[in-house]
Specification:
Pfam families: Fer2 (PF00111), Fer2_2 (PF01799). By secondary structure, the chain is α+β, with helices and mostly antiparallel strands. Helix content is 33%, strand content 15%. Strand 3 and strand 4 form a beta hairpin. Helix 3 crosses helix 6.
Length: 156
């Protein structure tokens, strides 16, 4: 089937199999590899992207379901001038990443959270990211990064 998806402001049209997952369309067709394939079972959140502004785990969405819609990946958060998004900077500055595998999904879930709630509490950040797993950081620094990106004071 023919699928057309706007990804990070660029229209991508391709013939794909009916069963093609959005994560594979993003990575293999559009060539945007920041979106990671983790568990393929919605458990880890490494494949989180924004679909029409809402965070989704792209391993559970068919490319056909995204046909005619707008997808934003981690690459799409970077400004046209090359400036990193405040979340990208905060994750780096507040050590919210270690191995980096979960980071794209965490940042995309956090971007969705901050769109809905620009000044979340620490508890709200934890709840907002509960579908994204990290095996390295223990989440404290991830929460600090999201709080910092929201313009709030970070606890030491």
């Amino acid at each position: 089937m023919r699928v057309t998806i706007e990804i990070n402001g660029q229209t991508v049209t391709e013939e794909v199999e009916d069963r093609t997952l959005l994560v594979h369309f993003v990575r293999d067709v559009a060539g945007l590899t920041a979106t990671n394939v983790g568990c393929d079972t919605t458990s880890c959140g490494a494949c989180t992207v924004l679909l029409d502004g809402e965070s989704v785990k792209s391993c559970t969405v068919l490319a056909a379901q995204a046909d005619g819609h707008r997808v934003t990946t981690l690459e799409g958060l970077t400004g046209e001038d090359g400036q990193r998004h405040p979340l990208q900077r905060a994750f780096s500055e507040h050590h919210g990443l270690q191995c980096g595998f979960c980071t794209p999904g965490m940042i995309m879930a956090a971007a969705s959270l901050l769109q809905e709630n620009p000044r979340p509490t620490r508890e709200q950040v934890r709840e907002g990211l509960e579908g994204n797993l990290c095996r390295c950081t223990g989440y404290h620094n991830i929460v600090n990064a999201v709080i910092a990106a929201s313009g709030q004071e970070v606890e030491k």
